Amino acid sequence: MTHSPLHLDRLRLRHLRLLALIDEHRSLRAVAGVFKLTQPAISQMVKDLEHAFGVTLVERSARGVSLTTAGEIALQRARSGLAAFDHLAGELHADHPPVVRIGTNPAVMFQLLPAAIGRLEACSARFRFKIRAGMVNDMLDELWDGNLDCYIGRVDWDRLPQRMANVLRHDPLTETDLVLACSITHPLAGRTDLSAAELLDWSWALPPDGSNNRTVFDAAFRNHGLASPVPTVEIAADPNALIMLARHEHFLICIPRNALDSHVLKEVVCVLDLPDLRFPPIQIGFVTLAQNEAMTSVETLRQALADVAQPTARMD
User: Fold this and answer.
1) Which stretch of 41-45, 73-77, 302-306 has the lowest confidence by average pLDDT?
2) 8 Å CB contact between 4 and 47
3) Where is the signal peptide (predicted)?
4) CA quadruple 191, 211, 315, 260: dihedral positive or negative?
């Protein structure tokens, strides 16, 4: 089956919504009920889609219908497109500058992203920003589904499905790394003779088990033949809360170095001196879908981030 440009021109938004409903209901009769159409009409819509793309998208069986592998790929891209249309419709009805929907990791909020937004404000760029901070995989899923225009943070390429990696556009911005830290009044603060084993005797506040930073943290201790510390407190995607626990409750913490890159924080929290316990660098990048690259708002933000990241290409 070859794809047909003529059939592509005849497709409507409801054809794209059709895939999502088939995936949800697994029944053409149920989908017909949602669309308030006959089942033969829904079958014809499926044929229109398959002729347009030149591949089989829906598989029929005695148990109903399901998407083929090609259908699942088409569904993911369709969701992104539908979300973009919904976002566009909202913007066109609002008498405000366009919104850039940004996903990020909380540590990026300490310096990099605020500096870029400040730069755009100084240049009188007419954009508004809707920012969501969360776990890496959650943010990339939101980008993939079309609920975000871009993502700023780390990317674990080995954990990404290949179909997602193929359509992402990544621009490296800067690097940071994980550090162990404590309050400047903690008994370990300022010591230069610390060993990894000694840290096991103290109370810890850490990211949750299974998170990227926790995995790296645990591996560093195992590489020294040690079991990793068991935290008293676990907090997901919130370095600011970890810093507050270190400052006020004397917990040891593990956070990205750039989260401590502040003159105010350096007066209350310090990095532990542990030359034998090093963590690999974390690359911070700007990520968007290939289809979003041409958006003026996305490109303008990308350039602003690149400009403010250059002076601190490595945050040591």
Assistant:
1) 73-77
2) no
3) none
4) negative
